[in-house]
Amino acid sequence: MPAPRNLFKQRLLAGETQLGLWMSLASPVAAEALSLLDFDWLLFDTEHAPVEIAQLQALLQAAAAGTPHCAARPAWNDKVLIKRILDVGAQTLLVPFVQTAEEAAAAVAATRYPPDGIRGVAGGTRASRYGTEPDYLTTANREICTIVQIETRAALDQIEAICAVDGVDGIFIGPSDLSASLGHLGNPSAPQVQEQLRLAADRVIACGKSPGILATTAADAKRYREMGYLFIACGVDLGLLSGAARGLLAEMGKA
Ligand SMILES: O=C(O)C(=O)C[C@H](O)[C@@H](O)CO
Question: Looking at ligand 1, which residue's alpha carbon is closest to its atom 1?
Fold first, then answer.
């Protein structure tokens, strides 16, 4: 049996819109419950969430209950972190803080077995169904989706060069870090930041790649969709939980 088909990658390359959810709670219960909703993808964050590799494996196992495609973000553009995430079965990686074509190429190489890259070979991991998929090693590369995250002014300057790197399947813009880099720390809604987000989407699309982004409200997600963003994390599980709890308290008159 070959590696599982990566439908998220196929839809990304076809330019389809895919609505996702950003997962920071580090909770298998939340992962399982939210996987049963109709999101196209879930992103498990290991950069800014307290998630190590064994926990990520448990999160992926829990989310396998449902249909969304499961992506993961390593804590850094690091070949060891990326290898370990691939081994626990994530096929789509969102690699943070990529600023140059060279860094993008390194991210791609880390996700591919030789001769296309440098991913280390393991006999039995969750990715290969613990070694029961005889064709996994020869088919894994084509089912990996590598998305790089642009989150600085310097990276914005390199969008076209980064998009041109073979194996980069999509470009994800991090509004929080980008706003910080542009001098608007904590304020991604600043008009100058929003203008850069609009321009970035246009430039990525002009390069023939799909742009993605993280929104924290439905209003933001809709605006980003109008800007042309194609894979949009429409919210964060942690934010949704605490927002709903705050709303409940407010309704009870304890704001
Ligand atoms: O810059 C951003 O935006 C991101 O990279 C996402 C953040 O890390 C964070 O908001 C995720 O919870």
Answer: 174
